[in-house]
Each structure stands twice: as C-alpha cells, then as structure tokens.
Please model this.
Amino acid sequence: MPKKDEVIAKLVALLNEKTKGQKPCSVCGVSQWRLQERFVSQPVSNNPNEIRLGGESMPLWPIVCGNCGNTVYLNLLVLGVKDLADVRIDPDEPAKS
Ligand SMILES: [Zn+2]
Model:
C-alpha cells in the first residue's frame, strides 16, 4: 500500500496536468487549497429516494479552500487514477485535516 506522501504527490501531479497550475477558489478568490489526505466514497443509486449503503459509489478526493472552507470533490477516476488501489493510503498513517 503506498505511503500518504506518495499518494498525494501522484494526485497533485494528475491535478496539475488537468488544471495547468493552481486556480483560485470560486467562492472567495483566494488560492489556498488544503489537499486532503483522505477520500470520500459517495453512494450512488438510480433511485433518488433510496440510500443504498455498501452499493455502488463514486470515489472522490476532497480539496478544501483554506480561507473560506469551500470544498470541491474531484472524481478520482476522471482525474486519471487508473486503479483505486494505487491511492489507498496506509491506514496506520494518521490523516490530518
Ligand atoms: Zn475560498
């Protein structure tokens, strides 16, 4: 399992490839993003009235504006992660926010 720093470096490289450099926050205009060292697995369903735990989900990487808290979720697969196992962070490493 890759180390946290390796995973973040890989994600930052993919992000820079897509954005060609840091972009300002759409809410406050400040460029002060906090890259999270953890992920969000958003459950998805064809039925809007249904909450299905343990079913299909969307793998997301949250980045948070350090000035206003605006939180953006990037889909890891669209970002360019080929195999989600490549970005699974060692659970023994503590996450920080
Ligand atoms: Zn902001």
